[in-house]
Amino acid transporter transmembrane domain-containing protein (Dendrobium nobile), 482 residues
Amino acid sequence: MAIGREQGKAAYLEEAGAFEISASRRDDLDDDGRAKRTGNFVTASAHIITAVIGSGVLSLAWAIAQLGWVAGPAVLAAFSLITWFCSSLLADCYRSPDPVHGKRNYSYMSAVKANLGGVKFKLCGLAQYVNLVGVTIGYTITTAISMAAVKRSNCFHRHGHRAACKVSNTTYMIAYACIQIVLSQIPNFHKLSWLSLVAAVMSFAYSSIGLGLAIAKIAEGSNAKTSLTGVTVGVDVTGTEKVWRTFQALGDIAFAYSFSNVLIEIQDTLKSSPPENKVMKKATFVGVTTTTIFYMLCGVLGYAAFGNDAPGNFLTGFGFYDPFWLVDIGNIFIAIHLIGAYQVFCQPIFQFVEDLTQSRWPDNSFVTSEHIIKLPMLGDYPFSFFRLVWRTSYVIVTAVVAMIFPFFNDFLGLIGALAFWPLTVFFPVEMYIKQADIKRWSKTWIWLQILSMTCLMISIAAACGSIQGLIHALAGYKPFKS
């Protein structure tokens, strides 16, 4: 009996010790057993600004040139309101069925699965990941163009504005891919706050430079030709070109506001108190408002500076030549920003593939094992051979595609068109209707459906315009040439 009592006591102490260890670990865990989130309003706003203010701002002067003084600013304002409204609906779908106390959805797809399920879940996955891949390819193109523009700017400064100064983007795409291979080893979104903060500062910086250069050009007495309806049929373009360019401009503006596809992932970085949906709605309002102010200024003043001849990218299209050093700084800031933005958009892809492979091959050590490496100044770092191979392969593939199709405006317009309706409007609206239990044919249901169908028509038109632009750009194009 004494032996039994001693064994029982030992078992009790062992269990109590295990409980104490478990309790101590709970300080580092959330209520669902995952790592404790540390994000807040500031970090979420930085993630949003990083995701929204991207290469899209560079094409807005061209977009407004196609639409004119009336439709251009009106379309920008309309897209900002739609994005903010639908993002607010999406923020309430982070937890389900209750937006405050429900179960967490860790990704956009899991939110759709929890609220809609079935075929819509699969369609969402297709739309989201095709868009995310497209964005990462677009950012590779944009960064390479910006870095090549630095070399061209210095060439123009030395040899004059009429010099050929041909530069291949391929070398810069390879360099960008090498940087992304290293950064892609960052395990997840929770480790990206510092990168997003740096990228957000860069986005403000180059937008401000472009804005300042446009103001200076106007102050010098720009003789740019502008009009209420944009480029003039019969003078600047044919009637058919006017239609296609108008559609493509809609796609470029839609791309400039694309961040809904990573909204849930950003929200998943927020601390549970105060409620994530409330913090995310505030961060979304600040992010969208801030970017809209910048977009209006850059687009409107860019159009005023260049008129109907506005370049597709107003920092790399050489609407500005001098001061060449300031143009160089602006393009360097673009490159730094898009290095961070690339990671914000590719992390959901990485996480999806890694979760899928681990669930299918849970006993495969190559897929599941991690090794802790001590790095100077960074401390313990979780290293995975599978993550190294898979993420490196992804970066290489996107870089190769970017080398084959390096068309800035057309590619951005197509990405924006494909993503805008399904990810920014349709799924948030459908999830809100389901979660809020809005009755079919009620007033709220009807106007939400009108909003969704209108945005669908805009997306189709924008996609058609961008595809036509790509076909035109591909005529006579030779890949991997200057």
